[in-house]
Every structure is written in structure tokens, then in C-alpha cells.
Recover the amino acids of this structure.
């Protein structure tokens, strides 16, 4: 499976949400990381043929996805950021209903729904009404609906939004499991959601991919260094005006700061290994603040 984006652009009036993007994806997990408004959903909606590009092309194994029609939709599973889940349907009925919409034969659908309910860990809740599920369970039902047609391409828009830490971990494991022999693209603005499961991470800002690579490659690409030091409370605001501070924590010795700077900020500062979160804050610090 190969998806190629060439010079892909989407504008709304004179605002460009996706800006001349060129990318290639094959099987594996791609993590699209960016702050709110970076253009992630716009990109994903184009990849699902729900939105036409202003210019440029998306091809799947060499064919224009907008000309493939049903052939492409059969390859695709999509979990939108907000998905309609019919609150009074049970999990099982909801999935059977979506299977009907997707044109899956009833006998096949019944078997597939049962398998998927088990795979996403909802067997005990299969007769529960959708509105009674927790946020994490709803998202798992959402993944199951995206997987009904056993898609080769799985696109998940902010699948971990609103999940608690346990649900996040469970979700990450599920996505890793589903990614075998499949192309999975998932968007998030939470670094830890993709740090360990994405084969390739894309940092997106203002409609462009500003960095891409494995987690290690992205970390190593950061031009500045990360320093750790302890300072008195009274100095913190002056330091924050002067340096990019990726984290601060009150500790008995004072305030522990992680400072991103090409030079040693204080004689007592020690150089520490950067994390992907430092890199994210390095590129998007002000935007995260906004
Ligand atoms: N239909 C539209 N008309 C006008 N502007 C739009 C439209 N859809 C998106 N935008 C704008 O395009 C930009 C990118 O939006 P998009 O939803 O793709 O970002 P995002 O990275 O998915 O953000 P979030 O994490 O908040 O979902 C935003 O500034 C948004 O306001």
C-alpha cells in the first residue's frame, strides 16, 4: 500500500490550511502531531476524499483517490474526531448498522462485528447502549466501525482525545496491534500518544510538515540543547522571558527547569538528553501557550 501526496494544498478563501505538501506513506503507523489549527483534520479529510484539494494530488498505488471512488473507500477506514454513534443503539447493533451502510453482507457482518468487539475489548459491553459507554469505550467502538471492512488504510483523527491514562495505554496497544500490514495515520497533539507506536512522526504547523522521521531522528534534529537546573522561585519569570522553558517543577531545592538553549544558561546547569516533548515545545512553544 502506498499513498502519495504531491503538492497537496487546501485553501479556505485566502487562508491556506494545507500548504503544498509532498509526502509518501507505506504500511506502518504515522503520527501526525500538531497544535490546534495546524491543519491535521483538513489533511485527513482530504485523505478520506471528504474534502477536495484546492490543488495537488493524492494517489493510492499510483491512482488518483478521487477517481477511484468505491475502490478507494473499500480500502479505507476512518474515525473522525466527532463521530455519530446513535446513543440508543447497543454496541453490537451500532456496528451491525454501520456494516449495513458499508454494504457488508449480513452473515459476514455478524461474524466480523463479533470478532471486532472482542478485538477492541468490548465483549462484556456489547449489549450496552452507546450512550452508557465511557469515553474510551466509545472510541474503541469507533475504531471497530472503522475496521469493519478490514481496511488497508486506517485514518484516526485525534483518537485519544479525552481519554484517561489507562485508556490511552490500552488504545496505543490496540493501534499497534491493528497496524500490522496496514497503513495507519493518526493525529494528536499529545506527544506520548505516538512517541512509542509511530514508525514515523510528522510535526505539522501552519499547514506544513516542519519535521518528519522516527522519534530518535526528530529528537536528534533539534538544533538546540536541553539543560536542567534549579533556581529560586523569584528568578523564574525573568528566566522564562529570556529562555524557552519546556518544563518546570517545584522541588525542595527550588524550581527545577528544563531550558532549551544553544548555550549553557547558568554555570550550574547540566546538559540532559532531549525528549520528543522538548522538541515539540521547541517548535511549537508559543503556539502551545496560545
Ligand atoms: N471549512 C472551513 N472553512 C474555513 N476555515 C477552515 C475550515 N476548516 C478548517 N478551517 C481552518 O483551517 C485551519 C486548520 O483546521 P484543522 O481543523 O484542519 O486543524 P487541526 O490541526 O485539525 O486542529 P484541531 O487539533 O483543533 O482539530 C484552522 O485555522 C481552521 O479554522
Amino acid at each position: 500500500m502506498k499513498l502519495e501526496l504531491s503538492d497537496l494544498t487546501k485553501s479556505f478563501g485566502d487562508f491556506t490550511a494545507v500548504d503544498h505538501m509532498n509526502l509518501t506513506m507505506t504500511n506502518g503507523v504515522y503520527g501526525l502531531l500538531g497544535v490546534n489549527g495546524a491543519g491535521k483534520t483538513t489533511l485527513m479529510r482530504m485523505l478520506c476524499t471528504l474534502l477536495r484539494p484546492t490543488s495537488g494530488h493524492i494517489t493510492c498505488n499510483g491512482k488518483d483517490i478521487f477517481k477511484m471512488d468505491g475502490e478507494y473507500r473499500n480500502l479505507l477506514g476512518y474515525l473522525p474526531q466527532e463521530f455519530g454513534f446513535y446513543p440508543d443503539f447497543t454496541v453490537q447493533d451500532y456496528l451491525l448498522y454501520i456494516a449495513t451502510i458499508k454494504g457488508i453482507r449480513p452473515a459476514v457482518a455478524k461474524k466480523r462485528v463479533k470478532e471486532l468487539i472482542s478485538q477492541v475489548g468490548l465483549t462484556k459491553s456489547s449489549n450496552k447502549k452507546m450512550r452508557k459507554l465511557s469515553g474510551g469505550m466509545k472510541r474503541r467502538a469507533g475504531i471497530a466501525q472503522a475496521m469493519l471492512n478490514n481496511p488497508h488504510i486506517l485514518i484516526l483523527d485525534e483518537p485519544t482525545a479525552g481519554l484517561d491514562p489507562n485508556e490511552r495505554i490500552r488504545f496505543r496497544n490496540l493501534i499497534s496491534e491493528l497496524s500490522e500490514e496496514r497503513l495507519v495515520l493518526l493525529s494528536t497533539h499529545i506527544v506520548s500518544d505516538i512517541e512509542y507506536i509511530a514508525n514515523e512522526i510528522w510535526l505539522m504547523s501552519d499547514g506544513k510538515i516542519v519535521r518528519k522521521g522516527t522519534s530518535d531522528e526528530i529528537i536528534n534534529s533539534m538544533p538546540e540543547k536541553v539543560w536542567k537546573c534549579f533556581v529560586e522561585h523569584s528568578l523564574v519569570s525573568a528566566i522564562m522571558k529570556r529562555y524557552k522553558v519546556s518544563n518546570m517543577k517545584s522541588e525542595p531545592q527550588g524550581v527545577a527547569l528544563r531550558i532549551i538553549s544553544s548555550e549553557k544558561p547558568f554555570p550550574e546547569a547540566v546538559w540532559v538528553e532531549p525528549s520528543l516533548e522538548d522538541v515539540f515545545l521547541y517548535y511549537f512553544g508559543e503556539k502551545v501557550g496560545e
About this structure: The longest strand covers residues 15-25. The chain is about 35% helix and 30% strand. The chain has a mean pLDDT of 90.
